[in-house]
Amino acid sequence: MAFARAFVPFPPSSSSRPSILNLPISHVSIPFQSIRNLTVSASSSALNSSASMEIEAPKTHRWRPMCLYYTQGRCIKMDDATHLEKFNHNYSADLKVNATCLNRLRPQNLDYLLVLDLEGRVEILEFPVLMIDAKTMEFVDAFHRFVKPSLMSKQKIMEYIEGKYGSFGVDRVWHDTAIPFKDVLEEFEVWMTNHHLWKKDQGGSLHRAAFVTCGNWDLKTMIPKQCKISKIKMPLYFMEWINLKDIYLNFYKRTATGMMTMMRQLEIPAWGSHHLGIDDAKNIARVVQHMLADGVVLQITARRSTTTPDEVNFLFGNRIR
């Protein structure tokens, strides 16, 4: 069975670079024929409900990898028809919501959901956030940056990035665009301020919004670790979050150990490269949309102590451990 491959052109640079990048679509390999004809029909029943959901793109929709320069505001090929045909420059193309899905949508205590999926174990390498309207399930905006480690030697960084992103074929775009974590947070705060999600002079917590992660690791472990490495105080907006695994367990009354398990159980096709953060964040967002359509109410599942920041209080007695 043949599998599709994609190519990402590079912006001009003074350094010597190949003109194209070989980008495998997926560790979760997607047959080429499936990509050509792909529409999403995600349906599932909670044990106590027959609710079903469809997130369906038009029949002419063809899944394409995101341009990873575009996601960071650095694409210079927006007038190149060939490039636009090969690469997606529209997040919402993969996150469309059928109006009939709104019938079972329940009132939420939050206005916006910030789907976050960090990548990198030694240091954060990728910081993607997708903003979803909790009341309509619609995609609103995205923030995506590749992150440059601050303590590693140049040689170690090369080895680290090759090991992490080389198999996806996106190591070059990472080298072209990665910036230090401190700079990423500064840009992220501007982005949040523009969306009225956060104001530093109003205490620093999120306003009517919450991070959604697939597990506790992103905000319980990795963000504090990276803040220490980068020698910055952990921002207050990282003090609480929604662990989708715990919500899923309590809503559907069944365990899902990760994003791929959720998608398999909910019959949602996985798109993109598993462990490429921006693709994982989009897939998690699709799970969130499905659960909202099934009638879930999303609640904070974990909160860091304000007096003892290293202490995290888990708010669900029935949770994934």
Runs in which pLDDT lies below 50 for 5 or more consecutive residues are: 1-58
Q: Find the structural class using helix and strand composition.
A: alpha/beta
* Helical residues, percent: 25-40%
Helix and strand string, N-terminal first?
EEHHEEEHHEHEHEHHHEE
How many DSSP H or I helices? 9
- Arrangement of strands in the largest sheet: 6-5-4-3-7-8-9-10
Task: Assign an overall shape.
Answer: globular
Overall average pLDDT: 84
InterPro entries: 3-5_Exoribonuclease, ERI-1_3'hExo-like, Ribonucl_H, RNaseH-like_sf, RNaseH_sf
GO molecular function: 3'-5'-RNA exonuclease activity; nucleic acid binding
Keywords: Exonuclease, Hydrolase, Nuclease
Pfam family, one: RNase_T
Characterise this structure:
The protein is an alpha/beta fold and 321 residues long. The protein is built from 9 helices and 10 strands. Strands 6-5-4-3-7-8-9-10 form an 8-stranded mixed β-sheet. Helix 6 links the parallel strand 7 (209-213) and strand 8. It is globular. The model is unreliable at 1-58 (pLDDT under 50).
